[in-house]
Amino acid sequence: MRRVALGINMQFPEALNLTEVRAIAKSVSRWTWSRFTAENFSQMQRHRAQTRTRRHLAMVEKIKNGRA
Which of 11, 22, 39, 58 sits most deeply, having the most CB atoms within 10 A of its CB? Predict the structure, then answer.
């Protein structure tokens, strides 16, 4: 997690100091571990797939009806 945070931090014109980056990374890690479950992840992925499928089906219908 720290490597990711440091990498993101380096992309900004004015980077945070190392202590701040470490504290933010630690906070994000704690939040994630306390709230993340495999079931929540599965539900989120299922929702994303369903949304994507509905959007694609709507585009196909528009193309079929000549409204593309």
Answer: 22
Return the beta strands (E) in the chain as ranges. none
Judged by DSSP in three states, 43 sits in: helix
Q: Which residues of 3-17 are buried (b: 16+ CB within 10 A; e: fewer)?
A: eebeeebeeeeeeee
Distance (Å, rounded) from C-alpha 60 to C-alpha 44? 24
> For 48, what's the count of Cα atoms within 13 Å in the CB-facing half-sphere?
6
pLDDT in tens, 44-60: 999 999 999 999 999 99
Output 56 or 66, whichever has higher pLDDT: 56
